[in-house]
């Protein structure tokens, strides 16, 4: 089945949906409650480790997971700057969720299949219920866009070309990935979001079930109780899509999906996001998955990750091709790579 941007694609789920519960995997300082050691995952194309860095944004040391491409340490690759992907986890999760719930094998297979080129893939830790939003005393968005990005740039050989940088996420992390990509388009050239928490423009239009869950989900801590419109609209991808000038999103490759059986009803908000982007003539790829559920327990990693990784891979490949073409045009082969913030977002 072909995938068209700015179109709603229907994917018939062929796997049975598994029951899923939100598990408290960690707390806001990156510690974990009774979490068992990560099971070994055999990877052909990556080595996986955990790291830590000091974050001024939240005032403490924060952990992360990192997949380095095989060959990263080879002498032949000592000058290579690798494409970068940052993954944002969902609510009540941590940086290890991607690894222990089946994301790693899909990531590895997509590189084997050529959907995604070898890259540095980082799983961030954004706190259990932060929504990755800057609060008065803890700036969770800045944790990602300032502190983590700065640490990765200084510690690893990652590209500073925005077209070779992607931000992705699931649920709460999908919401944040869209928000960050929409508001900081010079940082990332491509965004991929799954089961993203995309809400109505007006918080008064939230379903009663969601309103009842607001306190447990930490929404009142982020948006107030009752929910205040100003912080709500600054964080909600749907509001941002309606408020942002289309030209500011023109260079951004956008992919997002949601299932019709998402237990939080996020398919409705994502459908509105598709409509808003379509009306503003912003190119994007939207997939509505018939029978698809919410996040890991519903098997989304097999139903959706190959598609988002392919979108990321296409963007990275286009950036590499442009850089090679520019290099070839330089006299005697002395070319310059593109500077961060330049490019057309992979198109």
Q: What would your notes on this structure say?
A:
This protein has 347 residues and is of the alpha/beta class. Helix content is 33%, strand content 17%. The protein has a nine-stranded mixed β-sheet, sandwiched between helices. It is globular, with a radius of gyration of 19 Å. It starts with 7 loop residues before the first strand and ends in an 18-residue tail after the last helix.
Notable traits:
disordered C terminus; alpha/beta; single chain; Rossmann fold; 9-stranded mixed beta sheet; 347 residues; 9 strands; 12 helices; disordered N terminus
What CATH calls the topology is Rossmann fold
Helix content: 25-40%
Strand content: 15-25%
* Strand arrangement, major sheet: 1-9-8-7-6-4-5-3-2
Structural class: alpha/beta
Count of the domains: 1
CATH architectural category: 3-Layer(aba) Sandwich
Query: What average pLDDT do the residues reach?
Result: 85
Straight-line distance between termini: 21 Å
CATH class: Alpha Beta
Order of helices and strands: EEEEHHEHEHEHHHHHEHEHH
Unreliable segments of 5+ consecutive residues: 1-34, 333-347
Major sheet summary line? 9 strands, mixed
In CATH terms, the superfamily is Alpha/Beta hydrolase fold, catalytic domain
Brief write-up:
The chain is α/β, with parallel strands linked by helices. Helix content is 33%, strand content 17%.
């Amino acid at each position: 089945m072909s995938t068209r941007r700015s179109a709603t694609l229907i994917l018939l789920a062929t796997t049975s949906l598994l029951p899923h519960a939100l598990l408290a995997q960690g707390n806001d300082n990156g510690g974990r409650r009774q979490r068992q050691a990560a099971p070994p995952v055999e990877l052909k194309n990556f080595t996986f480790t955990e790291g830590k860095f000091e974050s001024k944004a939240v005032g403490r040391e924060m952990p992360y997971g990192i997949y380095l491409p095989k060959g990263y340490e080879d002498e032949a690759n000592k000058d290579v700057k690798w494409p970068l992907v940052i993954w944002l986890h969902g609510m009540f999760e941590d940086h290890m969720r991607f690894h222990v719930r089946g994301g790693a094998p899909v990531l590895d297979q997509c590189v084997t299949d050529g959907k995604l080129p070898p890259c540095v893939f980082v799983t961030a830790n954004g706190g259990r219920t932060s929504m990755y939003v800057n609060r008065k005393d803890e700036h969770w968005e800045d944790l990602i866009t300032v502190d983590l990005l700065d640490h990765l740039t200084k510690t690893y050989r990652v590209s500073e070309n925005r077209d070779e940088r992607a931000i992705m996420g699931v649920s709460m992390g999908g919401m944040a990935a869209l928000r960050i990509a929409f508001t900081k388009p010079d940082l990332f050239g491509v965004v991929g979001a799954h089961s993203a928490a995309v809400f109505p423009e007006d918080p008064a239009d939230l379903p009663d079930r969601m309103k009842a869950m607001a306190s447990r989900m930490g929404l009142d801590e982020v948006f107030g109780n009752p929910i205040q419109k100003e912080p709500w609209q600054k964080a909600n991808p749907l509001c941002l899509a309606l408020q942002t000038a289309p030209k500011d999103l023109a260079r951004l490759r956008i992919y997002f999906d949601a299932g019709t059986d998402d237990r939080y009803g996020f398919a409705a908000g994502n459908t509105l996001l598709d409509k808003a982007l379509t009306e503003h003539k912003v190119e994007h790829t939207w997939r509505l998955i018939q029978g698809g559920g919410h996040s890991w327990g519903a098997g989304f990693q097999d139903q959706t990750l190959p598609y988002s990784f392919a979108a990321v891979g296409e963007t990275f490949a286009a950036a590499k091709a442009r850089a090679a073409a520019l290099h070839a045009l330089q006299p005697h082969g002395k070319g310059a790579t593109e500077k961060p913030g330049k490019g057309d977002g992979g198109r």
